[in-house]
């Protein structure tokens, strides 16, 4: 089961989270027919998105994250709501590049001539919009840079996806954030700790999220606060008829007259919805 384990460490000077997103990445591979390279890029981003989702406070709070580095992969888009619900897609899911230093060249696929943009709808008059330049295109460093420069949070981020011939063997991450009470010594120790997670996906293939939390953080005055599920879910079915209704009956009828139908495709889950003249009678029944 995909999940996030949250804890505070160093007597409340920092918080640590361990995430397992293996099931979500395997579903994304099946839905979007992702190449190993695009699975690595989207999987890392969906893990960062799951972290954002799990830390939204209000019921119904939502976010959209866009990573656009100008590389051949195109944009990565991840969205979700509070409570660990996420979804995502990449523009070019079949992209492949030669390996770099024996590893998937995620940075080359994503590019770094662009930005990570995060939009949070927290139920206020205006959404919060944060944006920071990409650093490497490898996602983890870019997300840490975003947290620092857009939200003022010093953090260390490790994200990873391990694939084999059967799909995703392990995916997830470790994210450590310094709290306002953290001193300089704590910040140095946090940086040292995260050096243990240079291949966090390989570690997740050998140990559970609980074992990782206990082994690496248990001796650091650690208090585990919660374990929450992470779920890949798309709610397009609840919204798509509203899109048709938003066209207005006259425009909807015009499209059907020209094309024979109204077809709406969801980028997140690849669902297809087809509406005909008969469906319009139902959608606009109250007009």
From TrEMBL:
The free-text function statement in the UniProt record for this protein reads: Redox regulated molecular chaperone. Protects both thermally unfolding and oxidatively damaged proteins from irreversible aggregation. Plays an important role in the bacterial defense system toward oxidative stress.
Tell me its family: Belongs to the HSP33 family.
**Which superkingdom does the taxonomy of this entry point to?**
Bacteria
Instruction: Please state what the protein is called.
Output: 33 kDa chaperonin
Biological process annotations from GO: protein refolding
State where the protein is found: Cytoplasm
According to its UniProt entry, this protein's organism is: Candidatus Stercoripulliclostridium merdipullorum
Primary location:
cytoplasm
Keyword Manganese present in the record's keywords: the answer is no
């Amino acid at each position: 089961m995909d999940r996030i384990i949250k804890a505070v460490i160093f007597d409340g000077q920092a918080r640590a989270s361990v995430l397992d997103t293996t099931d979500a990445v395997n579903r994304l591979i099946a839905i979007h027919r992702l190449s190993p390279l695009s699975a690595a890029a989207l999987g890392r981003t969906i893990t960062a998105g799951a972290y954002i989702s799990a830390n939204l406070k209000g019921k119904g709070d939502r976010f959209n994250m866009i990573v656009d580095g100008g590389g051949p992969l195109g944009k990565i888009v991840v969205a979700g709501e509070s409570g660990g619900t996420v979804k995502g897609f990449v523009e070019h899911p079949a992209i492949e590049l030669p390996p770099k230093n024996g590893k998937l060249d995620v940075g080359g696929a994503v590019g770094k001539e662009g930005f990570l943009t995060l939009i949070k709808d927290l139920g206020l008059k205006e959404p919060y919009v944060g944006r920071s330049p990409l650093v490497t295109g490898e996602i983890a460093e870019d997300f840490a840079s975003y947290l620092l420069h857009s939200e003022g949070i010093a953090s260390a981020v490790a994200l990873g996806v391990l694939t084999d011939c059967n799909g995703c063997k392990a995916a997830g991450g470790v994210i450590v954030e310094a709290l306002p009470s953290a001193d300089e010594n704590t910040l140095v120790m946090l940086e040292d700790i995260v050096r243990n997670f240079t291949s966090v996906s390989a570690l997740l293939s050998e140990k559970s999220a609980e074992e990782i939390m206990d082994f690496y953080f248990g001796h650091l005055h650690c208090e585990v606060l919660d374990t929450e599920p992470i779920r890949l879910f798309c709610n397009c079915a609840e919204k798509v008829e509203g899109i048709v209704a938003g066209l207005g009956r006259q425009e909807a009828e015009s499209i059907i007259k020209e094309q024979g139908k109204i077809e709406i495709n969801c980028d997140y889950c690849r669902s297809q919805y087809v509406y005909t003249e008969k469906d319009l009678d139902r959608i606009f029944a109250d007009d």
